[in-house]
Design brief:
Elements: H1 2-68, E1 71-75, H2 89-93, E2 96-102, E3 106-109, H3 111-114, E4 120-124, E5 130-139, E6 144-149, E7 170-175, E8 185-201, E9 207-216, E10 228-230, E11 236-243, E12 251-255, H4 260-269, E13 275-276, E14 279-282, H5 287-290, E15 300-305, E16 321-325, E17 328-329, H6 333-341, E18 348-355, E19 358-365, E20 367-368
Antiparallel strand pairs: 1-2, 1-4, 2-3, 3-6, 4-5, 5-6, 7-8, 7-10, 8-9, 9-12, 10-11, 11-12, 13-20, 14-15, 15-16, 16-17, 16-18, 18-19
Length: about 375
């Protein structure tokens, strides 16, 4: 009897030991499995991250490749040649750059490249074929112009949002430096500054100011004028206009938003009737260089009123500050222009005007551009 009990106890002990060993081995195997899974997951995660980086880089290159096809050459004269070897070739041929902004044949460039409305020029597309173009709109004050060529179905470049650009953002300038031989040259840089104001000396020795500009260190050469400043998505955020010759790496572009309403109207209606408010004003940053004005926290300073505009009999005068148009707060002249460009002659707008710390509202009927 004792022997039977002893054997039974021995068998139970062996079973317990086997269960314990099995459990221990199971725990060890499970831990090793988890480590393997974590290791594999980390490898997959790292690999995915690297893959995404490569894909993003490839996407930027693809975006740029697609966008530069919409960059064109512009010449005031119907003359082809090896302009880089001509003395003063850029000036003598009137060479510059433009960018297709509508499939209906509208091209955006600088006013100083093509001149005033109704002027003619010659546009050379990515294919190398040249077409006669006509200037359908131009504004000397902001140095922008739109050309129309008689071709439909063109591949246009997407318009970005210049109000969202930030300092340090990667950007690319595309143009035809020193002539069409080096067409669609791409230079890269960053946004070095926003809302810049520069002083321009005119031919009659007077001075004017360009305001609200985007500053970049992307290389801008002679012949690049009118070309697009592009973000990593391949969208136009500005049109290159001015380079500071006295310093390297300082160039400026006109924000694309200011001309968006005009492009939209040409695209939808085939024409643009420009509304006119009748003031010439300055941003707050410019005023310290011109006037002894201290009560200027926000708004646009009214420097001059066109006596032939609808403002001639309104209760507004030089030295007033426009702080709002309709429900839009105004702090920059380019914002005011952009809003007026979205209107039509005959539209009525409300101006909130500040004078001697007092504010009042004026109703103004916009006239046609004089």
């Amino acid at each position: 009897m004792y022997s039977i009990e002893k054997n039974r106890f021995k068998n139970i002990a062996i079973q317990i030991l086997i269960i314990l060993l099995s459990s221990f081995l199971g725990i060890i195997i499970y831990i090793l499995y988890l480590d393997s899974q974590i290791y594999n997951y980390e490898k997959v995660a790292i690999g995915t991250k690297l893959l995404r980086t490569v894909e993003n880089n490839g996407k930027v290159e693809e975006n740029l490749e697609n966008s530069i096809k919409g960059v064109v050459g512009i010449s005031k004269l119907k003359k082809n040649g090896t302009s880089i070897f001509l003395e003063n070739g850029v000036e003598s041929l009137g060479l510059g750059t433009g960018v297709i902004v509508s499939k209906k044949g509208y091209i955006l460039t600088n006013e100083h490249v093509v001149g005033n409305e109704y002027n003619n020029c010659y546009v050379t597309l990515d294919t190398g074929i040249s077409y006669k173009g006509s200037v359908v709109w131009a504004d000397e004050e902001i140095d922008l112009a739109i050309i129309k060529i008689g071709i439909d179905g063109l591949k246009s470049v997407a318009l970005g949002d210049s109000s969202k650009v930030s300092i340090g953002q990667k950007t690319y300038a595309v143009g035809n430096p020193v002539g069409f031989e080096f067409r669609q040259t791409v230079t890269s840089g960053i946004i070095s500054g926003i809302n810049r104001t520069i002083k321009i000396k005119n031919e009659d020795n007077t001075y004017s100011y360009m305001e609200g500009l985007i500053q970049t260190d992307a290389t801008i050469n002679e012949g690049n004028s009118g070309g697009p400043l592009i973000n990593e998505k391949g969208e136009i955020i500005g049109i290159t206009s001015v380079k500071v010759n006295e310093a390297d790496g300082i160039g400026f572009a006109i924000p694309i938003n200011i001309v968006k309403p005009i492009i939209k109207k040409f695209e939808e209606e085939g024409k643009f009737e420009e509304a006119y408010l009748g003031i010439y004003g300055y941003d707050r940053e410019v005023i310290p260089y011109l006037k002894d004005v201290t009560d200027f926290e926000n708004g646009v300073y009214v420097e001059n009123i066109n006596k032939r505009s609808n403002l001639k009999n309104a209760n507004i005068k030089e030295g007033d500050i426009i702080v709002k148009i309709d429900d839009l707060e105004i702090n920059r002249m380019c914002n005011l222009r952009e809003y007026i460009y979205s209107k039509k002659p005959g539209d009525v707008v409300s101006l909130t005007v500040k004078r001697n710390k007092n504010e009042f509202v004026l109703k103004i009927k916009l006239s046609k551009k004089l």
